[in-house]
C-alpha cells in the first residue's frame, strides 16, 4: 500500500464534539459581547488556543476579556466531558483504525486541542491504544491554517511526505493539509452545512478505507 502513516485530526473528524463546541459559545458570547455564528465557527474551527485568543482580543478590544472568555469556555467544556458517558466516535472510525492496524499503517493524532484534552477524550472513547503519539496545537508555534502541526507529526514519525495521508474536517485543517504537501482527505462534519469544497473528499471514514486500498 502507498501509505505508511495516517495523521488524524480529532474534533469533528474522529469524534462528534464540534456541535457541542459550537453550542457552548452561546453560554458566554452575550456576557462578553462576542457575536458568534456559523461564519465564526468556520473561521475558528481547527485553530489552536493561542490563535483563537488573539482573534478574540482583537474583536473584544481586551486581552484580559479574551483570556477570561476562553478560560470560562474551556472550563465549561472540561466539566461537560468529565461527566460524559456516551459514544462520540464518528461513523467508520473503528473500522478504519482496525484496517490500519491490520495493514501495519501507523496512526497518529495532530489536533489543535490541548494535549490534556486530546489524551482524555481518546481514553474516554477507548481509542487511545490505536495511536503511536499525539501532536497538540498548543505545542507548536503556528497553528492551523499553517501546516506546522502536520509537518511536526511527519517528522516525529520519520516518514516521507509521499508516505503520509492527512484526514481533516475543518476549513483551517484543509488549508493546513494542502500547505503541508502531503496527500489529504476531507470528511465534512455532517452536523453542519457544507461550507467549502476540497479537491479530495470522502463521505465518511469507511470510504477512506476504500481510497487507501
From TrEMBL:
Keywords: Hydrolase. InterPro entries: HAD-like_sf, HAD-SF_hydro_IA, HAD_2, HAD_sf, PGP-like_dom2. One of its GO terms (molecular function) is hydrolase activity. This is HAD family hydrolase.
